[in-house]
Amino acid sequence: GGWLLIPHTFEFYQGQSNRLSDRIQFRRLSNDDQNKIDPHVTHRGLNGWVYERLAP
């Protein structure tokens, strides 16, 4: 027995000494979302994943 976790989104947060924060979100696109991304904000990764820098 056990659980199978299939993530669709990860977010990484890094606090900086100047009190600004870096947030990067990785997410897996659904088939419907493949052509609905803004290339100025969203960057394609591998295996159907994209990543975006988020505002604090």
Please characterize this protein's 3D structure.
There is one protein chain. This protein has one domain (14-54). It has a four-stranded antiparallel sheet with strand order 1-2-4-3, with no helix packed on it. With 56 residues, the chain is mostly beta strands. It is 0% helix and 43% strand. The model has no long low-confidence stretch (mean pLDDT 86). The chain has strands spanning 9-15, 21-28, 42-44, 49-54. The termini are far apart.
- Return the string of H and E elements: EEEE
Largest sheet: 4 strands, antiparallel
Distance between the termini: 40 Å
Poorly predicted parts: none
Rg measurement, Å: 14 Å
Mean pLDDT: 86
Number of helical regions: 0
How many domain modules?
Answer: 1
What is the total tally of β strands? 4
Give the DSSP E fraction (strand runs of 2 or more residues).
35-45%
Find the structural class using helix and strand composition: mainly beta
Strand order of the largest sheet: 1-2-4-3
| Overall geometric form | flat
Helix content: under 10%
